[in-house]
Give the backbone structure.
Amino acid sequence: MLKRLSLPRVFKLRNKLIDALSPYVDRKISGETVKDLTRDVYNALPPKVSYDAVFETCRILAGNYLTLKESVELSWRLAGNLDKLIAAVPVLPWSQQLTDEWWPVQVLRLDPAYRRGKSGFTVLLRALAGAYCPGVFEQFLSRPSCAVIARSIGFSNTRPYSHHTHLVNLRLSVFIEAARSVDSPYFKEVACSSALRHYNAGIIDIRVRNKPCPLDYPHLCENCAVGSSTCPAAIFQQDLVVKHCDKCEADRAFDLTRSDAMCLDCWYNERSEQYDKAGQ
């Protein structure tokens, strides 16, 4: 069953836990330090959680230096799995999906792909809560599947879906099937709560120009070089960077999340060649 979950509350608690862990960042976590760290984390969590579950979750840090990245991941995993902590279940890093579970996810990227005779995209998604949180995983979705999902998460006649990149940064819930998620998460069923649809609508309205571009640009979002830190409707995670591309021997735009060895056009061209060969 799709459980009710407030992502703003998850993010608020995650940030509170990051603050609680900040004194331990760049420190070696000894046996005694684990107890202190667990106490500080436990005190930052709601009162119904199990102390033993929190301790077992934090105990894996013993003997290692805690990096900022690890502290953020631990904070997010704890905040995104409160139901397990209340049920006295530790929330350890994902290794295999043990039970079927609904996860809220955010689309990070779509890259052209071809599988089993079908044209589509390799979709990169971040788990915002649930067992895999805050991990990033990928799944192939056909073009028709993307169009169907688009309708279910906020696109409509007044918000028409016209380009696959318009799915980037939108949120939905996916039903992770344990039997098919041995090595990596897999889903087939999706849903979208009213809260997620409301979040998506704010982005979609800009992309379909029901609302003006925040930066007053005349071009469409799919032709824009800015990243999501600059514009809420951006289709890239980071601003594109202009530098010399050795492959095409020109100064072109690079998407460093995809490649720092070739420009975005060359990257797409190379992927398209692989995509065409796979489809033959």
User: Anything to note?
Assistant: The first strand starts at residue 101 and ends at 115.
